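Exercise 7.
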Amino acid sequence: MFRKLASAVAVSAIALAVSCTTPSETAQVAADAQAPVSQPIPVAQVTGPHPGEAVYKTRCAACHDNSEATKAPSPETMARLTPGHITNALMTGIMIPQAVGLSSKEVSDVSNYLAKGGGQDDGWVEAMRCPAARATPKLDAAPTVATFGFNTSNTRRLDPAQVGLAGKDLTTLELAWTIAFPNAITMRSQAAVVGSTLFLPVGESNNRLFAFDISDNQKPCIQWVYEGKQTLRTSAGFGTRQDGKKVVMVGDMGGFVHMIDAVNGKELWAAHMGLFPASISTGTPVLVGDKVIAPSSQYEIMLAAQDSYECCKIHGGVVALDAMTGKRVWEGHTMEQAKPIKDRGDGQMLWGPAGAPVWNSPSIDVARNRLYVGTGEANAAPAHHNTNAIMAFDLRDGSIKWSHQATANDVFNVGCGPKGGKLNCSADTVFRDVDFGASTILAKAPNGKELVLAGQKSGTVWAMNPDTGAVVWRRDIGTGGPNGGIHWGIAADATHVYAPISYPGRSIPGQDVDPTLKPGLYAVNLNDGTIDWKFEVAPDCTDARKKFVPRCNGLFGLSGAPTVIGDHIITGGLDGRVYMVERKTGKLVWQFDTARDFTTLNGVKGNGGSVDNASIIAANGLVIMNSGYGLFGQGAGNVMIAFKPKS
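Solution. The predicted structure, written as tokens, is:
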């Protein structure tokens, strides 16, 4: 399917930003957004201040010089990018509002000012091509990793026999190989694995998804490469359609889902799944019968920082696409459409309700014909009752079966404060940003109760009745914060749910936090929510480590989703360390520091940084993970790392 470089996201953002430009400026931005931007305009060598410095200070510094609060990459992180990366973000991505009114030269100036990364040499791709005997994926085996939570229940639990690793192997792991991806700074996507083929999206590597053969655990090779039109954003999903075709699914920054033939890497279809033009894909698409279920998130939380933006009108949900054609079958909305509420004081109306994006990947309950997701905060007051909520949708038509709001009145936008701030801010808010980033899990406790488990950025683990949405139990592990608490994921087995805590938080009205509470991994009993053990982590911030994780004194907790492999659990830290603990006791049995330079198998310069989101999997006798997350002031990196049992 042919799509212009200026996607639906770009067109929408230009239209929304018209109010702060003259007609000629708007026409220029629209024209630039539709022009090829893979090569930035050359900038002549000049003496004195760089011409892009003034543009940066005027348009960019307020967010990027305060990366922890705004979640924007820091200048040091952006220095790893190419000018083309930054130009594309300004002209066809979420930075369009900042580019409105800039000339093409100014866009190029600021891109060249910020970017220090070199051009991308793809010689390594051809050098790693598989020989004929390994060039075609063999996909007859059941998938080892089919979605974010590995299976449709989202447990993130792997069987040792299936992945070729015995218990003792996991305590003696050593580095097998590392592959680096040029100019990437954030390795956010988890691979899907079927047989000996690993499907890995690397959005910052020319929007590509790689099929690696890992049958030789010392020498992986590339079977095929798929290249999208926009930055691939989600983890990879795998499934078999009803016509028998094996497919890989991935979502992109523009809110498109791509269905790809898993055998040859050819695109079967690409369809927009967003509920709004400014929707994006974050949660992994899941193939269920004849439908692809795709969560819809959004970036209005960023757009609202601009006073010129008419806020807020966008909400999240889930969308079902026909697996054969990509045609939209149904939409499940988290709330009704927004409408004008009140004048914000300058003659422009505030709209609402808005928010409740779905950042996470759904768990699927085929027996009840339901899917379960968690939602995000509100972007407009009054906060809708489906914000910061756990929700059940009907798989047949997208209707809401039940919803439980965990934290009310949490209105949050970038650029706002607890008492308001800019014109699109609300002073009536608890201002916590404690949404559900972690995917839900469908589990069964030892006492026989079926549960929907959810982890919230407030540090709370919830156990819900899947039939009614009633709370069975809850366990508060601190109060968390915008990056957790529980951020990207939880894991579960037959007895416990395992909750990684990034930051325990501080006491708030009505909830005190034990000052001895530490970041770490907590084993929560499925029967009653009791904490049976905990594994705590502490900072390790030498000068050598600061090179890769500059804020390691404060960002060292566990934010990414853990993985259960037999009697062990592996989890990664924001400071780049990865830990293996015993599943029954939490005892540390192995660890490795990924915040370092690596000699890579493909010869590309590579280093690790923060371990975040989700990536830790196992297959074919290897434990495989990503390292590098150049957002939120964290450590940038560009590597996929494989470990094998020590020989």
